[in-house]
Amino acid sequence: MKKQAINLTSVTYAIKAQNLLKKYGIWSSIGKSGKNVKGVGCGYSIFVKDEHSAAAINIIQQNKIRILSVEAKEE
What we know:
By secondary structure, this protein is an alpha+beta fold. The chain has a single domain (2-74), classed as 2-Layer Sandwich (Alpha-Beta Plaits). The protein has two helices and four strands, in the order βαββαβ. The chain has helices at 11-23, 53-62; strands at 2-8, 29-32, 44-49, 67-74. The chain has a four-stranded antiparallel beta sheet, covered by helices on one side. The longest helix has 13 residues, at 11-23. The radius of gyration is 11 Å and the shape is globular.
């Protein structure tokens, strides 16, 4: 299954983003960002299904949560 990793600056913002997405019926999980995300000391990612990624990114950005990057992931 393809997923998108939406890389955020901290676990606090990852939890806020996950709660927002839950309100819109989008399931997500939280995990530590990979080492290949530049400029991130303790960054965290929200993982969403590929088909929900555009909506998830839009919701997160509308709520002023800064997205560092988005990466495709295979499960």
